TrEMBL record:
This is NAD dependent epimerase/dehydratase. PANTHER family: P-LOOP CONTAINING NUCLEOSIDE TRIPHOSPHATE HYDROLASE PROTEIN, P-LOOP CONTAINING NUCLEOTIDE TRIPHOSPHATE HYDROLASE. Coiled coil: none annotated. It comes from Leptosphaeria maculans (strain JN3 / isolate v23.1.3 / race Av1-4-5-6-7-8) (Blackleg fungus). Signal peptide: none annotated. Pfam families: Sulfotransfer_4.
């Protein structure tokens, strides 16, 4: 008998029907869509909700492993465990009636099957712009060498986040962060979602053009708000915060491991500072700007 899954110990139950699945990839206007849905009375789930509790990172990691990876690629104890289905997603998403962004968007098939009455919004943008945005934000967590080292050695409290990002893009594009393979995976995702949903149940939104309330509200059957549609731009701010986190790691590598045992608290404070900055960068990237001339110099000269 396979070991019990972590989700099987979870006692949460769904509190409201799932109404909207936003299944476009991250960095396709999902933050603006999330804000818009909140103004319309929805409670959307996205990556920032996963970051609020370390237990959620672990559960979503389990969901990826047992649902999206072939048995031979899973950790040994998960090789015979069953995939997540509606009862499991009801626990993960118990407080939400909309889902978008990472990691939910890579479970398109599973969520569409689990919630047949939910409407599907597919946000998209020109691939070249999306790739640049990803390379300046989320992909940094798996392409910058210090972040990769922290993930592999598990030497920061945010290593679970880095592992989750790595796993998401292992499933999505085989961890190919640019080029023809990444483009093919991006286009395949959109074709796959379209193949799963009837036209009546699907709204495609091109976020390269200015979004308006009208198409979204008509699709959802709600009144158009009088206020302006929310617009948010996060890529540059997130990149700057990730640079600051990277610089904190550089300082720790240069000095932290040479501290004697009497300075363990100093080393821990350095890691905690790094964790705080990464968490802000991913969760609320418009809040802080930590970029310094030192980090910019080091990124140019030491990253490779």
């Amino acid at each position: 008998m396979a070991p019990q899954r972590l989700i099987d110990r979870d006692s949460r139950t769904r509190k409201r029907p799932m109404r909207v699945l936003v299944l476009g990839m991250c960095r396709t206007g999902t933050t603006s869509i999330s804000s818009a849905l909140r103004k319309l009375g929805y409670t959307p789930h996205q990556m920032r909700e996963v970051l609020m509790k370390s237990s959620e990172l672990v559960l979503w990691q389990e969901a990826i492993n047992v649902t999206l990876l072939p048995p031979q690629d899973r950790p040994a104890k998960q090789r015979n465990q069953p995939p997540y289905t509606r009862p499991d997603f009801d626990k993960l998403l118990s407080d939400y009636d909309a889902v978008m962004d990472l990691p939910g968007c890579i479970f398109a098939k599973e969520l569409i099957e689990a919630y047949p009455d939910a409407k599907v919004i597919l946000t998209k943008r020109r691939y070249e712009d999306w790739e640049q945005s990803m390379q300046e934000s989320i992909w940094c967590l798996d392409t910058w060498k210090l972040f990769r080292l922290c993930r592999i050695l598990n030497i920061t409290q945010l290593a679970p986040l880095m592992r989750l990002v790595h796993s998401v893009f292992r499933v999505h594009n085989g961890n190919q962060y640019g080029g023809s393979a990444a483009r093919s995976a991006y286009e395949k995702h959109y074709s796959f979602v379209r193949s799963l949903v009837s036209k009546e149940r699907l709204l495609e939104l091109d976020t390269d053009v200015e979004l308006r309330w009208k198409p979204i509200c008509e699709f959802l059957g709600v009144d158009v708000p009088k206020e302006q549609y929310p617009t948010m731009h996060e890529e540059k701010a997130m990149r700057k915060n990730l640079e600051a986190a990277w610089w904190s790691m550089v300082r720790l590598y240069r000095f932290g491991f040479f501290l004697d045992s009497s300075n363990d608290q100093t080393q821990r404070r350095s890691w905690d500072r790094c964790d705080d900055i990464i968490k802000v960068a991913v969760q609320d990237s418009n809040t802080l700007n930590f970029t310094t001339l030192e980090s910019q110099y080091l990124l140019r000269n030491l990253q490779t």
